[in-house]
UniProtKB/TrEMBL annotation:
Mechanisms controlling activity: Feedback inhibited by histidine.
Family affiliation: Belongs to the ATP phosphoribosyltransferase family. Long subfamily.
Catalysis: reaction(s): 1-(5-phospho-beta-D-ribosyl)-ATP + diphosphate = 5-phospho-alpha-D-ribose 1-diphosphate + ATP
Name of the protein: ATP phosphoribosyltransferase
Domain ATP phosphoribosyltransferase catalytic: 53-218
Taxonomy, superkingdom: Bacteria
Cofactor: Mg(2+)
Keyword field: Amino-acid biosynthesis, ATP-binding, Cytoplasm, Glycosyltransferase, Histidine biosynthesis, Magnesium, Metal-binding, Nucleotide-binding, Transferase
Location of the protein in the cell: Cytoplasm
């Protein structure tokens, strides 16, 4: 079901939302975020912004429900692996890597525990929101482990006796520090990316995307 207007999915609230809105504004897209609206119409271009949970953005692109999306590579990779495992559509086009949302996905353990390498994780239970990425990393190393799937409060799992280690996003390191944990392995370095669905769009929409990309290039270069 294609609409006349270009649909861009962005995170409603969280680590990418502010910078994502700023980037779009700098690219000349005029809009007003009011209340709890799910769809916000741009005032000066045929663009609709969809404000959703970041977890939903990869799927919306892969199912061709929206045209563009801004998402962290960590979430994008996790959903892509999960969909591949289920035999669901997992294709997308990466248009460009953005200059925000930088973080790493890391395995962390008790700060006082001895650590000499991945073999020390053998047989451990790892709490995470990213089971697919953890599995890919550990399988590549041939290290056996089990998971404890948590969508939030991952960092408290070891202290709560739910897991031996965690695998979660780290940016400043403050969360690990506050929970008596230390980074053991970095499994992915992530940034925000702009992605497009693989559906063929009509010429006007595709031209609008090209125009946005050109402006984005200018905006990002001006900051460097
Ligand atoms: C992530 C992650 C940690 C925190 C790490 O959570 O789950 O809690 O950021 O950042 P730091 O190293 O700067 O402390 P996020 O803020 O994305 O929210 P969520 O856990 O509610 O998804
Ligand atoms: Zn999320
Ligand atoms: Mg968190």
């Amino acid at each position: 079901m294609q609409t006349q207007r270009l649909r861009i999915a962005i995170q409603k609230k969280g680590r990418l939302s502010k910078e994502c809105q700023t980037l779009l504004k700098r690219c000349g897209v005029k809009f007003n975020m009011v209340g709890e609206r799910l769809v916000v119409h741009a005032e000066n271009m045929p663009i609709d912004l969809l404000l959703v949970r970041d977890d939903d953005i990869p799927g919306l692109i892969m199912d061709g429900v929206v045209d563009l999306g801004v998402i962290g590579e960590n979430e994008l990779e996790e959903v892509s692996l999960e969909r591949q495992a289920r035999g669901e559509p997992s294709d997308y086009k990466k248009l460009r890597r953005l200059d925000f949302g930088g973080c790493r996905l890391s395995i962390a353990i008790d700060k006082d525990a001895e650590y000499n390498g991945p073999q020390d994780l053998n047989g451990k239970r790892i709490a995470t929101t990213y089971p697919q990425l953890v599995k890919r990393y550990m399988d590549d190393l041939g290290v056996k482990f089990s998971t404890c799937m948590l969508n939030g409060s991952v960092e408290v799992a070891p202290r709560a006796g739910l897991a031996d280690a965690i695998c979660d996003l780290v940016s400043t390191g403050a969360t690990l520090e506050a929970n008596g944990l230390k980074e053991a392995e970095v499994i992915l370095r992530s940034k925000a990316v702009l992605i497009q669905s693989t559906e063929t769009l009509d010429d006007e929409k595709q031209a609008l995307i090209e125009r946005l990309l050109t402006r984005m290039q200018g905006v990002i270069q001006a900051k460097e």
